[in-house]
Amino acid sequence: MLEILSSPLFGISLSVFAFQAGLFINKKLKNPLANPLVIAMLIIIAVLLLFDIPLDAYEEGSSIIYMFLTPVTAVLALSIYRQRDVLRRAFFPVVLGTLAGALAALSSVVVTCNLLGLDRTILASLLSKSVTTPIAIALTEQFGGLPALTIASTLISGVAGNLLAPVLSKLFGIKDPVAHGVGIGACSHALGTSKALEIGDVQGAMSSISLSFSALWTVLLAPLFF
Amino acid sequence: MASMKYLIQLAIIFGLCLVGDVISLVVPFTLPSSVISMLLILVLLSSGLLKEHSIAESADFMLKNMTFFFIPPVVGILRYSSLVQSIWWQLLVVNLVSLFACFAASSWTVVLVQFVQKKIGGKRHA
Description:
The complex is a heterodimer. Chain A folds into 2 domains: 66 residues, no CATH class; 150 residues, no CATH class. Helix content of chain A is 84%, strand content 0%. The mean pLDDT of chain A is 89. Chain B is mainly alpha-helical. In chain B, 76% of the residues lie in helices and 0% in strands. Chain B is built from 6 helices and no strands. Classes of the chains: A mainly alpha, B mainly alpha. Chains A and B meet through helix 2, helix 3, helix 4, helix 5 and helix 6 of A and helix 1, helix 2, helix 3, helix 4 and helix 6 of B.
């Protein structure tokens, strides 16, 4: 039985069906908390635990989906390119907005880690958490942190940003689509951007360009905070 | 040949990502290859060396279904469940505080910069 489950086809089809179920439930409930990604994760984890299927078997297939993460991030260039006129007008707001966002993210992580008494290894793992997962992991390794914690944190930031994107703009009184998109991209990388793309073209493009500017700022500034 | 279109588009995108991989190995700073590939595609599109129609359908397929591709790392957290369980509320606090701080700082800065630009632009026109 395990041989069949270890086929990459198992992980891929389980992921597709779980995500379809997530999209369906999300449409029925119309609640931002019923996030398709979170529902898909719960379904997959439930299936693995219920049938005692090792994570390794699932990852035979899921690693193939994971392989697409680099090209998926890269083709964000197309959504930026299509919004080049908006970007040309919003160049300074994007560059300065992501700079402020990176500074706020880095300093707030340092302050809260110190207040909660978390040690330096954990600080090293959390410092880069608002940027896209591959660069966050690269920075964590540079600082001697635990990549696993970084992945967990980029996911919390990403999922929270994805869930809260519509709420955050109301909470902070942001009506401008450029400001909304930059905010989402700066704090919750590609995962938040996938939500921004659903909210609107301008928000999606601003979020995609902001996630790359945030990554650049964070690479440059993170060493100053550690 | 039309049926080959999507595969050719995918091959172009994958090929450019491989070029991004190579560039990330050469440059002296830590920049993930996905960000480099994104900047590379942006430069190629802007300069006209790469046409939008050479990647459009496959790229749109990935963009429209982007959330799906994050399922594997999210499920992979299962592997680190004991570590996450021991400090889960601290992780949540650090992440939420910095999420709010980062969103507020970046979006308000954008509003402020746009306001200043409008003032300067208004004076120039007056």
